């Protein structure tokens, strides 16, 4: 007898899961997706959305799902029922190429600025704005790299404002040489 | 051809085969009411928009065709939210057209504006806001296609007043193949390998149960089911949504499972080694406490909605497809398989059937009427193909239990949502769909007071339904729970013995009103009602308020702890 395949009994150790959802770019589609998550008690960690083709007929929504809040099969199954959802790619964290963007405004006295600039350069971030007592930097990279950078900034410079975009992802290519 | 958006809307509804619209006019939908005068479509003017929605549902449940309702914006639209939710829960194909304020006014809190697409997003299969009249034929075609294919359900099309007033060059509705729905591909055929494996499991099981749900009726899979039942030799349970999918007189039909199901149907599922689910969804009213439900059963789950498989209970085999197609494939795959001898299983089941038949205590001579007896008399004295439409409460359960459903689509009720007030309007809709058939609404006194005004609609439109009120002067089902689980502390459940006067109310609405208090008057009243065909009839049956629905599995309890009728309990 085959094993049950439902998520109600399987517990995956991975708690975050990335769904790359291609949707028709129609009015209200984001509300449909977000509303579905809330009414079915599925938790979202982050959500990023942008047009997916030049004609803006489709958008791609990258959703990082809390796979503990509901079995992934249920999330995918319910999402698929939305008429405007065209395709769902479930990217396990091993198959996903993930990137995210961060902006941070750091309030720093003039005399301590050099130290901050060094750390910024080390992390591969760059300065995008500057004033007498603050600088704004940006970093794009893997969520892990952003986490490390965010921790460094937040610890060293409590006077800061950090904004992240939430991640976007695409599947890795076969035999991908990328290591990130 | 240049026509108005309103004309285009009516033309599109005509092209989709609409024969009747249940509706109610108002400011934002006014332009559309003008071309209705010239249309072949019959319009039925309801007395409350909730009535329009439930009528459309009753029509759809009785005929299999989509029900169409049309209302104005704001309060008109919100009044039909309950039927939309009801249709969503019971997978009823329903197309609701709502008027909307002009596009330029949307978002300004204009008079009778409300965000009905937002409100109904979670209770429709899909909804649309039309912003350009040239989209009308396409959106209407999409709406009917989405409502009626795959897992059926309600859809809503919101049409601003400037759109219906503008001029547009008409083009015909696209055919289903021409629709632009890149994200919608309902599957019909089940995966052949899964079908073959499921057929083997069915043939090899020692204690199989075919768990038949409303999806089998939706898929019009009655003949296919009968064949699989014959080939498998397995017992069948028909859920509240599937009563009539297999005749109650069929020897393999154990009857209804669930909270008020009969002992044998409930217990057969608990002891089964294979639950073979066809168009059912493991609703909590069927499973009872989930972790104690059918503990030793492997699960085969056939459903047209992939998200149902494994939603509640893990499946060993899940088959996504239309019930008719999949059941036919299962029969083909089963035909050549050697079958396990089920005689031991049947011996057990027949023992339970003999020990725990559906029962009640008949009234003593001269005592107040028993509601179950009235259902039995209605059943005995009405045509075999009469359609029964229930409200929600004890009377609904007795109607599901004590009427013998011999034909499909003769039982219509509000299952998933449990919407009080469903019976009268849904019965009207069913009668519109089948004018030649007898339609009995079996209603509670509480339910009747929610939607009785639609009897005015029925009388004015010449829709002679019959209503049997099982009048216990209580919100009986709630009373039952308070008696059993709240130490008989009756809180806000008593209605009245005197108010309203149902006979006078019925007559004020142009119906025949009859009151029955005594057992010897029951048959004559029913026979009189069945002989009246020029107007609706309401019979106010005064019934025993202390009567409870048995068997019962308490909410949250295990099905193993089913409470049978007191006369059948051990020691009784
Ligand atoms: C719209 C709505 N409100 C409340 C309920 C809760 N409820 C379920 S059954 C019931 C009592 C129904 O009373 P009645 O129509 O007299 O039927 P009876 O149980 O007495 O047969 C109530 C209040 C409901 N199901 N629907
Ligand atoms: Mg009552």
List the helices and strands and how they pair.
The complex is a heterodimer of chains A (180) and B (572).
Chain A: E1 16-24, H1 29-39, E2 44-51, E3 58-66, H2 72-80, E4 85-91, E5 96-107, H3 113-123, E6 126-130, E7 134-141, H4 143-156, E8 160-164, E9 168-171
Antiparallel strand pairs in A: 1-3, 1-4, 2-3, 5-7, 5-8, 5-9, 6-7
Chain B: E1 2-4, H1 5-15, E2 20-23, H2 30-36, E3 42-45, H3 49-63, E4 67-71, H4 75-79, H5 81-89, E5 94-100, H6 116-119, E6 126-129, H7 136-148, E7 154-160, H8 161-165, E8 167-169, H9 192-204, E9 208-212, H10 214-218, H11 222-232, E10 236-238, E11 253-255, H12 263-271, E12 274-278, H13 284-287, E13 298-303, E14 317-320, H14 323-335, H15 343-355, H16 371-381, E15 387-390, H17 394-402, E16 411-412, H18 423-433, E17 439-444, H19 445-451, H20 454-461, E18 466-471, H21 476-485, H22 502-508, E19 512-516, H23 519-531, E20 537-542
Helix pairs in contact in B: 1-2, 1-7, 3-5, 3-18, 9-14, 11-14, 16-17, 16-23
Bound molecules: thiamine diphosphate and magnesium ion.
Characteristics:
heterodimer, A: 180 residues, Alpha-Beta Plaits, five-stranded antiparallel β-sheet, four-stranded antiparallel β-sheet, 9 strands, elongated, B: 572 residues, Rossmann fold, 23 helices, 20 strands
């Amino acid at each position: 007898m085959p094993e049950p395949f439902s998520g109600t009994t399987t517990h995956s150790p991975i708690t975050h899961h990335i769904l790359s959802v291609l949707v028709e770019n129609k009015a209200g589609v984001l509300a449909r997706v977000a509303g579905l998550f809330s009414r079915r008690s599925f938790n979202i960690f982050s959500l990023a959305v942008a047009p997916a083709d030049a004609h803006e007929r489709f958008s791609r929504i990258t959703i990082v799902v809390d796979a503990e809040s509901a079995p992934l099969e249920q999330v995918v199954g319910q999402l698929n029922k939305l008429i405007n959802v065209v395709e769902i790619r479930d990217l396990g964290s091993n198959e996903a190429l993930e990137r995210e963007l961060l902006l941070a405004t750091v309030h720093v006295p003039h005399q301590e600025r050099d130290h901050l600039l060094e750390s910024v350069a080390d992390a591969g971030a760059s300065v995008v704005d500057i004033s007498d007592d603050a600088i704004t930097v940006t970093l794009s990279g893997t969520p892990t790299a952003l986490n490390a950078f965010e921790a460094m900034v937040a610890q060293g410079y409590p006077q800061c404002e950090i904004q992240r975009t939430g991640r976007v992802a695409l599947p890795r290519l076969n035999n991908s040489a990328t290591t990130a | 051809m240049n026509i108005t958006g309103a004309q285009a809307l009516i033309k599109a509804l005509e092209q989709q085969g609409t024969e009747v619209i249940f509706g109610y006019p108002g400011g934002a939908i006014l332009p559309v009411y003008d071309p209705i005068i010239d249309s072949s479509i019959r319009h039925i003017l309801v007395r409350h928009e909730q009535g329009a929605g439930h009528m459309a549902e009753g029509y759809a449940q009785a005929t299999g065709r989509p029900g169409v309702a049309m209302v104005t914006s704001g309060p008109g639209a919100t009044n039909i939210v309950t039927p939309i939710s009801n249709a969503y829960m019971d997978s009823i194909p329903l197309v609701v057209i709502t008027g909307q304020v002009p596009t330029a006014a949307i978002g300004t809190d204009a008079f009778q504006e409300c965000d009905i697409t937002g409100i109904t997003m979670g209770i429709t299969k899909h909804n649309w806001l039309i912003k350009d009249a040239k989209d009308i034929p396409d959106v209407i075609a999409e709406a009917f296609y989405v409502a009626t294919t795959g897992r059926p359900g309600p859809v809503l099309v919101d049409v601003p007043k400037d759109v219906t007033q503008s001029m547009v060059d008409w083009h015909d509705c696209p055919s289903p193949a021409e629709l632009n729905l890149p994200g919608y591909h309902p599957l019909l055929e089940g995966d052949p390998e899964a079908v073959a494996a499921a057929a083997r499991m069915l043939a090899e099981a020692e204690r199989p149960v075919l768990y038949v749900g409303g999806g089998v009726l939706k898929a019009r899979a009655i003949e296919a089911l009968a064949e699989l039942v014959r080939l498998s030799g397995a017992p069948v349970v028909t859920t509240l949504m599937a009563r009539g999918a297999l005749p109650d007189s069929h020897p393999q039909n154990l009857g209804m499972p669930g909270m008020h199901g009969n002992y044998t149907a409930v217990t057969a599922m608990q002891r089964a080694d294979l639950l073979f689910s066809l168009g059912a969804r493991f609703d909590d009213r069927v499973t009872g406490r989930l972790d104690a439900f059918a503990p030793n059963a492997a699960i085969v789950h056939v459903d047209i909605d992939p998200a149902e498989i494994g939603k509640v209970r893990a499946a060993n085999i899940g088959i996504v497809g239309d019930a008719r197609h999949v059941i036919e494939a299962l029969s083909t795959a089963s035909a050549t398989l050697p079958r396990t001898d089920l005689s031991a299983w049947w011996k057990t089941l027949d023992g339970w059937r003999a020990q725990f038949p559906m029962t009640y205590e008949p009234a003593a001579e001269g005592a107040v009427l028993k509601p179950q007896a009235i259902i039995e008399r209605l059943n005995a004295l009405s045509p075999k193909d009469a359609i029964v439409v229930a409200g929600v409460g004890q009377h609904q359960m007795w109607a599901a239990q004590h009427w013998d459903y011999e034909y499909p689509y003769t039982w219509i009720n509000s299952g998933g949502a449990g919407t009080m007030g469903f019976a009268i309007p849904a019965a009207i809709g069913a009668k519109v769909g089948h004018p030649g058939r007898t339609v009995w609404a079996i209603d509670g006194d509480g339910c009747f007071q929610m939607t009785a005004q639609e009897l005015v609609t029925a009388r004015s439109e010449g829709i002679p339904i019959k209503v049997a009120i099982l009048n216990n002067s209580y919100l009986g089902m709630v009373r039952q729970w308070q008696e059993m689980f709240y130490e008989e502390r009756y809180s806000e459940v008593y209605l009245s013995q005197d108010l309203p006067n149902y006979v006078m109310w019925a007559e004020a609405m142009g119906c025949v009103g009859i009151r029955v208090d005594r057992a010897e008057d029951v048959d004559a009243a029913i026979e009189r009602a069945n002989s009246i065909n020029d107007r609706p009839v309401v019979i106010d049956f005064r019934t025993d308020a202390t009567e409870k629905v048995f068997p019962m599995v308490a909410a949250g309890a295990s099905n193993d702890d089913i409470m049978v009728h007191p006369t059948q309990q051990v020691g009784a």
